[in-house]
Amino acid sequence: MIRSEVIGNWKMNLDHVEGIHLTQQIGVLLRANPHDHVDVVLAPPAIDLRSVSSVVEADRLPLLLAGQHVSEFDRGAYTGEISVSMYKRLGVTSILVGHSERRAFFAMTDEVVAATALTVLRGGLRPVICVGESAEVRSAEQHEEFVAEQVAIATATIGQQNFALAYEPVWAIGTGETASVEQVARMAAVIREALPETARATTPILYGGSVKPENAHELASGGNVNGFLVGGASLVAEQFVEIVSTASDCYGRSR
Ligand code: PGA
Q1: CATH number of 4-254
Q2: Strand ranges for the chain from DSSP E
Q3: The whole model's pTM is what?
């Protein structure tokens, strides 16, 4: 049985003071809203993590922490980079690898994504490998092959170790345009098929791209995925926790 999860990706928003505030707000709302059937994960900017983790520990909040990006190297002369062991020391358990914004704006190739995922695993953390097609690829009807290839390149390097996949169609990220339930369910099946056979039953597949309180129920119940990677709506405590409790309700029922 795959444990469901909802990850809030704050991207390059909120300094550490704002991050403390949002974490406290989320903590208060989580106490009042059932969320037993999902893990709730925050992925703040790296520089906020120390402060956010202090709040999580001090208030004993039911929150896990994730990194947004990590160096493919273990340590050394890589100015500006952050290593897996640095994240680990702060209590981080997962790291997003190959988010489409890293691929598009920072030239992260499939090969670097695979190498980075391997570094994360070697360091004892779990990579959440992000995949997804652009609007052009979808309109050329190449999206299934494209995403299956992204998955295949990553798994050729990391094998069947402990990782998660996030399907995030680039055209649905931050645009307000959500993939339809049918599109998400179809791609989740394509991704599962592209996984090594031994990893199919155990690897969580998340959906990301304009997930909001209004579409969370539909996507959780019909999308054939194990949770969400939420960007914009994760910056507003009420919206994020509503997505969490909706997902928990849907996943609790489908047991
Ligand atoms: P969005 O971002 O929810 O703002 O579309 C999702 C993501 O990029 O992780």
Answers
A1: 3.20.20.70
A2: 4-9, 38-43, 64-67, 94-97, 126-131, 164-167, 205-208, 227-230
A3: 0.97
